[in-house]
Amino acid sequence: DAGITQSPRYKITETGRQVTLMCHQTWSHSYMFWYRQDLGHGLRLIYYSAAADITDKGEVPDGYVVSRSKTENFPLTLESATRSQTSVYFCAGSAAFTGELFFGEGSRLTVL
Amino acid sequence: DQQVKQNSPSLSVQEGRISILNCDYTNSMFDYFLWYKKYPAEGPTFLISISSIKDKNEDGRFTVFLNKSAKHLSLHIVPSQPGDSAVYFCAAISSGSARQLTFGSGTQLTVLP
Which class for B89: exposed (0-12), middle (13-18), buried (19 or more C-beta within 10 A)? Predict the structure, then answer.
């Protein structure tokens, strides 16, 4: 039971390039989330989705785009990557918004 | 402005002793609090939670205490084990329509054998 699967696990890209981080769940969680983890900041919410075709901004949405055409997938796209977007990105899911999230293993992105 | 603060980036304790991890918050609308544990190269995992109507919640070796008047919560681990070495994140949810989970910056706990 993989739960939340993220790909790629590691990615190096250059400034200005478009990058998409994939998130797939094997469960049927209604809620899905994207967080970024940076030293000194903990985990900050980028975007979340309450259901298919419903998405909303979190604390740090600028420079990111999400979509949720299917319940099981929640890709995160950096349309034009910047060095400040170098981070570890975590996708998470939750059946109901109780705060108890199930996280994927993370995607480490480096923007040169 | 961080609404959830973990002022100690790191903590070291001896195996068998008590570990106390602290967390302060500023938003009085927070009504549910959680602790997550994170090992290197893994995603965070939920550990324990507490509602604002309680002041204590216990689960095995883990106890969370909430002091609403001080806007402070703490996680106690007794006895500490080497496998508890991880980063611990405090998190909070605010009441109302804009419910989001806000995390602190984390505390690296090292339990020394």
Answer: buried
DSSP-derived letter for residue A9 is S
The candidate with the shortest Cα–Cα distance to A86, out of A5, A7, A19, A23, is A19
Higher pLDDT among residues A2 and A24, named by residue: A24
The string of DSSP letters for A70-81 reads STTB--EEESS-
CA atoms of B81 and B109, how far apart (whole Å): 11
pLDDT (tens digit per residue) in B15-29: 999 999 999 999 998
Q: In terms of DSSP bridges, do strands B72-77 and B62-67 run parallel, antiparallel, or are they unpaired? A: antiparallel
pLDDT per position as a tens digit, A35-75? 999 988 889 999 999 999 999 999 899 999 999 999 999 99
Residue B64 three-state SS: strand
Q: Least CB-CB distance to A101: which of B41, B46, B104?
A: B46
Q: Residue B104 corresponds to which tokens in the numbers above?
A: 């602190």
Report the distance separating Cα B25 and Cα B69, nearest Å: 11
Strands (E), A1-112: 4-7, 10-13, 19-25, 31-38, 42-51, 54-57, 64-66, 76-78, 87-94, 102-103, 107-111
- What residues in B contact A95, CB-CB < 8 Å? none
Across the A/B interface, how many CB contacts are shorter than 8 Å? 53
CA nearest to B103 within chain A:
A43
